[in-house]
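User: Please fill in residues for this 156-position structure.
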């Protein structure tokens, strides 16, 4: 069995592992939710929302990778398996089928509201335990909050 030496104390390691694990699940599921809506959006604002959703997906995937690799770096194997994400994600479930543009905007405003609150809590939880992981989560929050603003602006 491969063991990666953690730079953290046991107590810090436990806290940071949990925060990064849950952050990864949120980000992987956000990328899936973004593509699902990207493919199924309909309505007069199709093109705007369709391409905005690819920005959601690109950012979520980029940050998922950074979070997962930080987890590996501190000695905790990342778990981004479909079964883990399906079982543990806290994102609201999406229904299959076409979705009107206004409904996509409302859905993503609600979705970002939840993800940001959880990310802020995780950043707080790891602040003392591991400033490096804290910094990574702050970068995630910066991106999510920017996109949250854009979704709210879309609502008009
Ligand atoms: Fe596409």
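Assistant: Residues filled in for all 156 positions:
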């Amino acid at each position: 069995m491969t063991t990666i030496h953690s730079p953290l104390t046991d107590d810090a390691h436990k806290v940071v592992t949990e925060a990064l694990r849950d952050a990864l699940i949120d980000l992987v599921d956000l990328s899936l939710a973004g593509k699902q809506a990207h493919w199924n959006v309909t309505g007069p604002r199709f093109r705007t929302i369709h391409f905005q959703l690819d920005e959601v997906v690109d950012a979520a995937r980029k940050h998922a990778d950074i979070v997962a690799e930080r987890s590996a770096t501190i000695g905790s194997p990342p778990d981004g398996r479909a079964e883990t994400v399906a079982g543990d994600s806290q994102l609201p479930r999406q229904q299959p089928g076409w979705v009107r543009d206004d409904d996509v905007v409302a859905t993503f405003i609600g979705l970002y509201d939840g993800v940001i609150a959880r990310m802020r809590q995780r950043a707080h939880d790891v602040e003392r335990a591991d400033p490096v992981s804290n910094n990574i989560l702050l970068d995630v929050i910066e991106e999510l909050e920017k996109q949250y603003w854009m979704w709210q602006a879309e609502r008009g």
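For context: The domain at 10-155 is CATH 1.20.1260.10 (Ferritin).
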